[in-house]
Amino acid sequence: MSTTITVGNIALSFHRAAAAVTRRVLEAHGHRVESVEAPHEQLFRLQQDGRVDVLVSAWLPSSHDTYLSGYRDRVHLLAPHYHPYCVWAVPPYVPADEVREVADLTRPEVAARMTRTVDGINPGAGISRFSARMITAYGLDRAGYGFAPGTEAGFIARVEQGLADREWFVIPLWRPQYLNRRHGLRPLVEPKGLLGSVDAARPVVHRASLDRIHPAALARLDTLDLGNDGVEELDTWINADGLTPLQAADRYLATHHPETP
């Protein structure tokens, strides 16, 4: 079978990593693969319009259901490849007895030391929507905090520089993301539950594409378990070791899933 399948991913490094593994599985069953990436809302619109066969992946129910709900009856959801979740985190050198939960950020002695701009990624990400809501829900705005969405590159550079300067800062983060593995950032307790639940990262296949995908490829993708640790390993190889997403996928599959396809 030489049918071309379009695989779409959100324009973030760990989504590229998971999409590269999906691409390799499809190629192993004879497919040509075209890759598309876009910001969150745009990627789901592309699939809704029939321009993406396989979307890797929708975080359900918390982060991406709002984007999928308009066309959910036209897609088939595969089993989760990993189980992501969102946190706010601080550097490991910020004492846990001073900053244990989000509300501690408003304490005068903490706010006086903390950088009060909370930098994030693009505004369409679930973590960004949740974080903007938290600023007011926890009264952080009254203590001078504000949320500033940005790019992935800017977000990573901000974290790296803050750590190098031993700055006190809080960062909207998620698993899987290589910064967790690289720096040991410490999650804060968030009792209001505004950061959503543990999601299921499920590949989304457009129903119009189902009969074009080799059944064995579809079955393999439906049983592929990357796990949060696996995606963070891939993401680390890409961001810290300089591998391309496809090189990282090849290393990962050879190490952890030699039975693929």
Short description:
By secondary structure, the chain is of the alpha/beta class. It folds into two domains: 4-83 and 199-256, Periplasmic binding protein-like II (D-Maltodextrin-Binding Protein, domain 2); 85-187, Glycine betaine-binding periplasmic protein, domain 2 (D-Maltodextrin-Binding Protein, domain 2). It contains ten helices and ten strands.
Q: Strand content of the residues, in percent?
A: 15-25%
- What is the CATH superfamily label of the largest domain? Periplasmic binding protein-like II
In DSSP terms, counting alpha (H) and pi (I) runs of 4 or more, how many helices? 10
The assigned CATH architecture of the largest domain is 3-Layer(aba) Sandwich
Structure characterization notes:
The protein has 261 residues and is α/β, with parallel strands linked by helices. The protein has two domains: 4-83 and 199-256, 3-Layer(aba) Sandwich (D-Maltodextrin-Binding Protein, domain 2), CATH 3.40.190; 85-187, Glycine betaine-binding periplasmic protein, domain 2 (D-Maltodextrin-Binding Protein, domain 2), CATH 3.40.190. It is built from ten helices and ten strands. The strands form three sheets. A five-stranded mixed β-sheet has the order 2-1-3-10-4. Strands 8-5-9 form a three-stranded antiparallel β-sheet, with helices on one face. Strands 6-7 form a two-stranded parallel ribbon. The two termini are 14 Å apart.
